[in-house]
Structure prediction request, 138 residues.
Amino acid sequence: MAHTTSIIKISASPDQVWKLIGGFNSLPDWLPAISSSELSEGGRVRHLTDRNGEEIVERLEVFNNKERCYTYSIIRSSFPVTDYQATIHVRKDTDSETSLVEWSGRFTSVGVSDEEATNLFHGMYEANLKALEQAFTN
Prediction:
């Protein structure tokens, strides 16, 4: 099983960052690549549509508001992986006015090498975290 992690420092408190990204349906609020998100199954499944019209369906597996993290799996997508599970976690940095946001995932590659799948998701996590950082600098 392959895995990757990306971390970024955000100039906002952990509570401010979590307020923006902690909702399982909040991706369109801060991630330009996602144009819409609709919840089903009592808020446990999100149906995302990206800017190209592709649909991604994800299931919320674990949610911990106190620890400011959630884990989700992909139910359906065009990504070349199975058994995908990822976690987004917001932590306090060395002071209470900055945050460390970590996005990590593990998955089994299908039709591509582990290196290719890892590079794909690492690049996505990095771009997504940079978009999050921009939400606090604009």
About this structure: The mean pLDDT is 96.
